[in-house]
Design brief:
1569 residues; 101 strands; disordered C terminus; mainly beta; 11 helices; single chain; 5-stranded antiparallel beta sheet
Length: 1569
């Protein structure tokens, strides 16, 4: 019951719990389904990254879109996707800007090896044998974008932004595999004359290495046993024995067990021997041989441990086996142990902190700065320890140009204002003795200061007013010019017109009409261009002071019986220009009787009435006029002083108004100044006028520059006092009363707190005791118990200051000479050794250079009694050497230097006026170097000869003298008296140029040079002047009425009428002879009652242009009517206008431009050139300008123009720089140089700049000391015949004079300074092979340079050379231990392409020799294609066993010469049948013997290149033979057919129609068929 209830209870519990479990399971399944659905149905999707935005560089940002999608592809909310897996939507990127082009670049590696296309991606398979010339392949290379500065790899997108990515692969050709090519074997070596088994060998070398997978090189050595075994006779051994020495072991310290070994057996050095050697060790009971010493070199102790090293010694047999040592008989067994210094590496301190970066600001370039850190040496390397590393390390800092730093200051050139233009500098160039005129003008030179200053820009981007100067090297661009040509404007020459006529006398005071004082005036005006003197119509205002003449006047007409007189003539010229006590001006005019009066008529006037006189120029000859001084400079007006300002450097201020004053004087001509009241007050010139006040300019100087830096490195106590300086520059001079410049422009002071170099020195202590190899080691190896022999001893070396205080050794290593040696070899003599006292000092030398000095030592102890020690050849007790010779000789060497001009300080101050005006000629000094030699002819320091190393002597550099001409002469008169002409002036040669002076202009044969200018002479300047005609004289003897025709005369003269001054009579030749007036003429004195007419008037003007159809007329008027009606003579005449007779055309003639004319105070610069105008008549005659002016002809617009005369400026050079360092530190060929630069190039015809701007001088002769390494000695084995040894070479100190041809002489090693510390420079491990050892030969010679070629064309730009060495076997038993043969290749240039072809000899018994030959004729092994190798033997199947048969090259049996083949039906040879009758005939060509008969090899070789070969190598005919045969057959048939047609008879004509024939296929020869 209990069980049942229990079961029911359990069942109910199970049922109830089962439902819960089911519900729970369902919930878990739903949850897992949701999770799975969430995790598997929704995923994140991303878009493409967008453009990089933001700041340039690594501060950019890229974004992309991220969204959540269902697995079916539709987008849902992002919460459905797992947030932890959400991709980033932003990332940092590198924003590329244009300036990044300078920061990044593509880095491209070299192309990798060309790989076959199927295997280009890593697969490696052997190349096939089907290659003919080359195969297609691919080459790959690495391409990546890097930062230029530190080569850091960045994203390729940065570089692709500017330049497309270079290709990473390219097609290529792979040559076919080339096997190793070796030379032919040498001849066999000679067998040694020795009993037993002997070997001989032969070798070959590598000509070309294997390439592109070719076969490796074969063995380069062949060995064989010599023929003829020589048995060893009695007492002669078959083998030889050699003592073989091994290499030294590493240095080690003895172990305690080695020091306590007793009775142990040593290691057996004869490995194959059964013989044992035993020895015993003595117990070491004290520490006297302890090998550790403390050397206190600094605060840290320096441990130097002395240990020992050993080596093996064995006896080897000639067959290579090791045998007992006793078989190698030798007087003394070589030393197997030696003392050594335990290796210890160099120790250094920790690195110091990095120094500050050298680049502390940002510049435009991308170059980085640098910083350094240092460490000190605390322990030097001892023994074979590792040498000390570098103690200074440098690294880049502020990479990328330091853009995060503040900008660096920029520097630019600044200039002061130009100085005033100075003409005297040009005058000094032409003539240094030239006296400076007072008012120079024209071309000159002006200078300014040029200095470098920091560029700082203000807000308006304008340069600040003044900046301090800095070092010129900070300005990287070329400096602006410091001098230039300039021009001072010359004042225009004052040109004035002629004086006008004197005006009327006017009262001084117009209001005082009763006044007696008055004055007359005349005037002239200032003109620039010549003015016309003929006058022109002007306004009436100019004549307001003169009464205007009346327009009408009265006249009288004579009646028929009245006397008739002529009109008054013109007034004659005034007899005087002015009136005085002794002179009075007069003018006259006349008239004459033209007709006599009749009865009752008006009588003629008296003779006095026919003349009139009047006064003229009645003004006094003592004239007065106002004269003025020059205007004074513009000065301040006290009333407007407050308006004035001062000009500053920036030029922004303005200036006020001022006044100018001048003095006015009343001057009387020929008497000087008179009281002012004598001159009319009304025309008194003004004495004050306003002006623009000249601005003041204060002196402007730059601030002082920075003090020059004091030395940062320490200075020795005996060095001179160091100073530092600073300066400032005047950039504007004080002008017009401005503030003056300061006196101090340069300051200097002594440097303070200069560190003094510490005085360190090595302190050397005494050598310690000699330390030997431990007794236990020596006794264990050799059984030697006596402590003697070679060892090492050490000493203490410390670094101390002057106070003897010890410091770290690194200080002495830095400041003092190298550290003295700490260890040296020593010797403890054995009891049987000879012992000596130390060497004495050398005896003193006499003054004679040929003397010697000696030193001595003596035997000590038991050595004095030993006979062997008395042998002075082995143990010398006296040493003798030559005394040093102190006799030296001096010899000059090299050429004299150029003449060096010395400049004194005073001259420098004078030359400072103009930059670059350096002294070029005069007195100087030239140098020649001196060399000092000792008695042996060895070059030594020149201090031994007690001179400075130079000879000096004065010299002279001739000064260049320019061509000198005289001053210009006066201008000649104008060559023409009417119109345009030429005026000339000349200058002649005074001194010819020499020494490179400026050349002369082109001179005429009289050594003169001319200058011409056009001139103009008024045609009225020289004119004919006539007096009035005399009264008409009637011959009274023939005419009683005293009327009618008669003659009258007048006087004629030629006068000169200048612009100023009085007329003067000149010779008639100056006037135009063709226009000379008549001095005699017929006249008529009219009788009473006759008709009287006047003289003919002027002809009327002909029109322009002239026209012959138009007439010109002239008239005369009736003066008196006749009493009786009579006809009066004609009153008019007409004449046609004929060109060049009575009618003329006129035109202007313009001269050429004159040369450029300068002011009299100018030598170059701006000038004026002019041309002149004249009026020319159509018949070529020059006339007055009135004719052309009346026609209003067009004048040229410009008659005066500005021009420029180029200034002659000599080349200006800077001062010489300081002498440079010597080009060689020693020897005879060293030179120093100094340079100068061109400040201003030559202008015009100035002296050109010299081609050489550098001067040289030889340096003082100093001996050259150098360490010379000798040749390596043969390998020396210490104590044995073979094995490990060393090669030694000497290091010798040699002296020479620096030239290549000079012989060197050996001198003391101390003169060469430090010797190399590493023994590897002088010692080289080597080995000497023992008899029987297999060893390598010496390297072969380098092969010729060979290129890799395809079809005869080079595949590579460089070729290859090879050399090899192989092994020599001396015993076959040891051939397994032979080293590998070695091959070396190196690139070379100038190589050739070689071909390799197979060569074969003639067949001999079906055999021949085949070999490979290079195209240059060298027989080689390898290089030729194996597939193309010809056969060396011929085989026939079945074999040729028939009589007289042989195997042909084609592999079939043939018959010999004289026999023919009889073949079977199956094609094989049946037998050979002799051809009858061929004993004296040629063989049948159809036989194989004839087809394959031997050919003369020499003739074959000669003609094989061009002869036709009809047979293939197998004996068959070639295809072209059949083609030629067929062609020949067709040609023969054609010839026969053509001959037939030509020779056939023609058929006779048939009149009857031919009969019909049946058509057949036969050909009857009819051509119409």
């Amino acid at each position: 019951m209990f069980l049942r209830n229990s079961w029911l209870s359990a069942h109910w519990a199970w049922q109830s719990s089962r439902s819960c479990l089911v519900v729970l399971a369902l919930l878990l399944l739903h949850t897992s389904d949701l999770e799975g659905r969430k995790s598997h149905q929704f995923v994140w999707k991303t878009g493409h990254w967008g453009r990089c935005i933001g700041d340039c560089g690594s501060g950019g940002v890229q974004s992309r879109v991220v969204w959540c999608v269902h697995s079916e592809g539709w987008t849902t909310h992002h919460s459905n996707c797992e947030q932890s897996d959400r991709p980033d939507s932003q990332r940092s990127c590198f924003k590329i800007c244009d300036w990044h082009l300078e920061l990044f670049e593509w880095e491209v590696s070299e192309w990798h090896m060309c790989v076959l296309v199927p295997f280009a991606h890593g697969e490696v398979k052997p190349r096939t044998s089907e290659c003919v010339t080359a195969q297609h392949g691919l080459q790959h290379r690495h391409v990546q974008c890097v930062q230029k500065l530190n080569r850091t790899v960045v994203s390729n997108e940065i570089c692709e932004h500017f330049i497309p990515q270079p290709p990473m692969e390219q097609a290529c050709l792979i040559p076919c595999p080339r096997d190793c090519v070796v030379s032919q074997f040498s001849s066999w070596s000679v067998c040694r004359r020795h009993c037993g088994k002997r070997l001989q060998h032969r070798t070959r070398s590598v000509i070309a290495p294997p390439l592109y997978g070719g076969a490796k090189c074969p063995n380069l050595t062949e060995s064989r046993t010599c023929n003829g075994f020589i048995s060893c006779s009695h007492g002669e051994e078959e083998y030889t024995y050699s003592l073989k020495v091994g290499s030294w072991s590493k240095c080690r310290l003895p172990h305690l067990k080695e020091m306590n070994m007793i009775g142990r057996t040593s290691m057996d050095f004869s490995l194959d021997s059964t013989e044992r050697s035993t020895f015993k060790l003595q117990v070491v009971e004290n520490d006297q041989n302890f090998h550790r010493f403390k050397l206190h070199l600094s605060s840290k102790s320096l441990d130097i441990e002395i240990g020992y090293q050993t080596r093996q010694v064995r006896c080897t047999r000639s067959d290579g086996k090791n045998v007992m040592l006793s078989l190698c008989v030798q007087e003394a067994i070589p030393l197997n142990f030696q003392s050594c210094v335990m290796p210890k590496e160099c120790e250094t301190s920790d690195w110091s902190s990095w120094s500050s970066c050298s680049k502390t600001c940002h510049t435009g370039d991308l170059s980085p700065g640098f910083r350094i850190r240092t460490r000190n040496i605390t322990h030097i390397a001892t023994g074979a320890g590792k040498e000390c590393p570098e103690t200074e390390e440098r690294e880049a800092c502020n990479i990328g140009g330091g853009r995060h730093l503040h900008p660096c200051p920029r520097y630019s050139w600044r200039t002061s204002e130009w100085k005033e233009c100075d003409v005297s500098l040009l005058l000094e160039q032409q003539d240094p003795q030239h006296q400076k005129p007072t008012a120079l003008c024209g071309g000159g030179i002006q200078v300014r200061k040029v200095y470098c200053a920091q560029s700082t820009l203000d807000e308006t981007h304008k340069l600040k007013e003044v900046t301090r100067p800095v070092e010129n090297k900070l300005c990287l661009v070329p400096a602006p010019p410091s001098s230039q040509l300039c021009n001072i404007q010359c004042p225009p020459e004052c040109r004035v017109s002629s004086w006008s006529a004197w005006g009327p006398c006017v009262l001084e005071n117009c209001h005082d009409t009763q006044g007696k004082k008055g004055f007359k005036m005349r005037e002239r005006r200032v003109i620039v261009e010549p003015v016309d003197t003929s006058g022109e119509d002007v306004s009436d205002d100019f004549c307001s002071e003169v009464p205007s003449p009346s327009g009408t006047t009265g006249c009288e007409v004579p009646c028929g019986r009245d006397c008739v007189v002529t009109e008054w003539s013109q007034w004659s010229s005034c007899s005087h220009s002015c009136s005085g006590k002794n002179a009075e001006g007069k003018q006259s005019r006349t008239r004459s009787i033209l007709a006599l009066p009749g009865e009752g008529g008006k009588a003629c006037p008296s003779s006095q009435a026919l003349q009139e006189y009047r006064s003229c120029n009645d003004h006094s000859c003592n004239q007065v006029y106002w004269e003025t001084s020059v205007w004074n400079p513009c000065s301040e007006n006290t009333l407007i002083t407050s308006l004035n300002a001062t000009i500053n450097w920036n030029g922004e201020a303005t200036c006020g108004m001022g006044i100018q004053t001048r003095k006015v004087f009343c001057v009387k001509n020929n008497s000087g100044q008179v009281p002012a009241k004598r001159c009319p007050e009304s025309i008194r010139p003004e004495t004050v006028r306003p002006c623009l006040l000249t601005c003041k300019k204060d002196c402007v100087v730059t601030p002082f520059s920075e003090w020059t830096s004091c030395p940062t490195v320490c200075q020795h106590g005996n060095s001179t006092t160091m100073k530092q300086s600073r300066y400032r520059i005047i950039i504007q001079d004080a002008v017009n009363g401005g503030q003056e410049c300061p006196d101090t422009l340069f300051e200097e002071r002594e440097c303070e707190n200069i560190p003094l170099c510490p005085a360190y020195s090595w302190k050397i202590h005494k050598w310690g005791q000699c330390v030997l190899v431990p007794d236990s080691i020596r006794q264990g190896i050799l059984g030697v118990s006596e402590p003697c022999g070679h060892g090492l001893q050490s000493r203490v070396v410390t670094c101390v200051m002057e106070s003897n205080h010890s410091v770290d050794i690194g200080e002495c290593l830095k400041w003092v000479e190298p550290m003295p040696s700490l260890v040296q070899e020593c010797l403890i003599p054995c009891k049987d050794d000879c012992t000596f006292t130390p060497w004495s000092k050398f005896t003193s030398c006499s003054s004679d250079c040929g003397s010697t000095r000696t030193r001595r030592r003596t035997l000590t102890g038991r050595s004095r009694k030993r006979d062997k020690c008395q042998n002075t050849e082995l143990y010398p007790q006296v040493e003798t050497e030559q005394c040093p010779c102190s006799i030296f000789t001096t010899k000059p060497h090299g050429n004299w230097s150029e003449c060096i001009i010395s400049v004194r300080k005073t001259e420098l101050q004078l030359e400072a006026r103009f930059h670059g005006h350096a002294k070029e000629c005069g007195e100087g000094v030239r140098f020649q170097a001196l060399a000092c030699y000792d008695k042996t002819g060895r070059l030594v320091e020149h201090s031994h000869c007690n001179h400075s190393g130079y000879i000096e002597e004065p010299c002279m550099v001739p000064c260049p003298f320019d061509c000198k001409l005289s001053d210009w002469s006066a201008w000649t008169p104008c060559s023409s008296t009417c119109g345009t002409g030429v005026r000339t002036r000349s200058r002649w040669l005074k001194e010819k140029p020499y020494n490179g002076g400026r050349p002369c202009p082109k001179l005429d044969p009289k050594n003169q040079v001319y200058e011409a200018i056009p001139c103009y002479s008024e045609c009225s300047q020289y004119s004919w002047e006539t007096e009035p005609w005399s009264p008409c004289e009637i011959n009274s003897e023939q005419n009683s009425l005293h009327c009618g025709e008669g003659r009258q005369t007048r006087k004629i003269r030629c006068i000169n009428t200048p612009e100023e001054g009085e007329e003067e009579t000149v010779a008639n030749r100056f006037c135009n002879q063709s226009e000379i007036p008549l001095d005699t003429q017929k006249c008529t004195l009219y009788c009473p009652s006759e008709c009287v007419v006047s003289e003919w008037g002027r002809w009327t003007q002909c029109p322009q242009p002239c026209d012959s159809n138009i007439m010109q007329t002239r008239t005369r008027r009736l003066l008196r009517s006749p009493v009786h009606p009579k006809t009066c003579p004609e009153d008019s005449q007409m004449w046609p206008c004929v060109l060049n007779q009575n009618c003329f055309h006129y035109y202007y003639n313009v001269t050429d431009w004159s040369t450029c004319q300068l002011s009299k105070n100018a030598i170059c610069g701006e000038g004026i050139k002019n041309r002149l105008l004249s009026c020319v008549r159509s018949d070529g005659k020059t006339v007055t300008m009135n004719y052309c002016e009346q026609l209003n002809l067009e004048k040229p617009a410009k008659m005066i123009a500005h021009c420029l005369v180029e200034c002659v400026v000599n080349c200006q050079l800077s001062e010489w720089s300081a002498w440079s360092e010597c080009s060689h530190s020693c020897g005879l060929s060293g030179q120093m140089l100094r340079t100068r630069s061109v400040i201003m190039q030559a202008q015009g015809e100035g002296r050109l700049c010299p081609a050489e701007l550098t001067q040289y001088r030889n340096c003082a002769a100093k001996p050259c000391y150098s360490l010379v390494l000798g040749e390596w000695s043969p390998c020396r084995v210490e104590g044995g015949q073979c094995g490990d040894g060393i090669q030694v070479r000497n290091l010798t100190c040699m002296v020479h004079n620096g030239s290549l041809s000079a012989a060197s002489k050996q001198v003391e090693s101390s003169l060469c300074g430090d010797l190399p510390s590493k023994e590897s420079v002088l010692l080289l491990p080597c080995s000497v092979p023992c008899p029987g050892d297999c060893h390598l030969t010496e390297w072969s010679e380098w092969s010729s340079c060979e290129l890799t070629c395809i079809d005869g064309r080079s595949f590579e730009s460089t070729g290859r050379q090879s050399r090899s060495r192989t092994f020599i076997i001396q015993s076959f038993e040891n051939q397994d231990s032979c080293p590998e043969q070695e091959l070396e290749t190196r690139p070379c240039s100038g190589g050739k392409c070689y071909n390799y072809v197979w060569k074969a000899s003639l067949w001999q018994d079906n055999e021949r020799t085949v070999w490979c030959q290079r195209s240059d004729g060298v027989n080689v092994t390898g290089g030729c294609s194996i597939q193309r190798q010809p056969t060396t033997t011929r085989h026939c199947s079945p074999a040729c066993k028939k009589p007289f048969s042989y195997c042909t090259q084609s592999g079939v049996c043939g018959c010999k010469r004289g026999y023919t083949e009889i073949m079977r039906s199956d094609g094989f040879l049946d037998y050979c049948m002799k051809i009858p009758g061929l004993e004296d005939k040629k063989a049948d060509v159809k036989t194989n013997a004839a087809k394959n008969k031997p050919i003369n090899s020499k003739m074959h070789d000669i003609f094989k290149g061009w002869s036709i070969q009809p047979f293939n190598p197998d004996g068959k005919l070639k295809i072209w033979v059949y083609g030629v045969s067929a062609g020949g057959f067709f040609i023969i048939v054609s010839l026969i057919f053509t001959s037939y047609l030509l020779c056939k008879k023609p058929k006779q004509q048939q009149h009857s129609p031919p009969q019909q024939k049946c058509l057949t296929l036969a050909y009857d020869g009819d051509v119409d068929m």
